[in-house]
Specification:
By secondary structure, the protein is α+β, with helices and mostly antiparallel strands. It has two domains: about 90 residues, Cytochrome Bc1 Complex, Chain D, domain 2; about 45 residues, no CATH class. The protein has a five-stranded antiparallel sheet, with no helix packed on it. The protein is elongated.
């Protein structure tokens, strides 16, 4: 299945039941999430970053910049979850922090869908994600949601 393909690394960030996931748990999507929203999230991940998954850029007094998701914000230190090839936590003492700036970029890389084998895989991915969030948690059968190709066209994903 697409979601578990090594080259896409979806499960690295979207793991069901993870304590501090990097990305939203796709098995726990809210009921207002539509196929159109998911297509947009895949093609334009920085357009609307889901609450709680925003990144920050931290500049230290030594001039070092670190970007990640803040998972701890204490009076003495902050802890960032950083994805630089592998997931790691970076602890920064407050005394070493010069500036914290909210990032407008999603941790999900742009153009990730370009790694799919083709248009059919892209059109299968969104229904699969919708099925993950369904009550029975049964993966989607091969097929498309109504309007899937229209949604792909609307987001100029015709080359997928």
């Amino acid at each position: 299945m697409l979601f578990t393909q090594q080259n896409l690394n979806c499960t690295r960030c979207h793991t069901a039941g993870a304590v501090r996931p990097v990305g939203p748990d796709l098995a726990q999507l809210s009921s207002d999430v539509t196929d159109t929203y998911l297509v947009e999230a895949l093609l334009l991940p920085s357009k609307a970053i889901r609450k709680g998954f925003e990144s920050v850029s931290v500049v230290t007094t030594a001039g070092k910049a670190v970007t990640g998701r803040m998972i701890e914000d204490g009076p003495e230190r902050i802890v960032l979850q950083v994805s630089s090839g592998k997931l790691e936590r970076v602890t920064l003492p407050r005394s070493d922090i010069e500036q914290i700036v909210p990032s407008k970029l999603s941790a999900m890389p742009d153009n990730l869908v370009d790694q799919l084998a083709g248009r059919e895989q892209f059109l299968d991915l969104v229904p699969y994600m919708m099925e993950l969030a369904a009550a029975d948690k049964t993966p989607a059968a091969h097929g498309h949601l109504p309007g899937g190709k229209t949604s792909a066209r609307n987001f100029r994903a015709s080359s997928c």
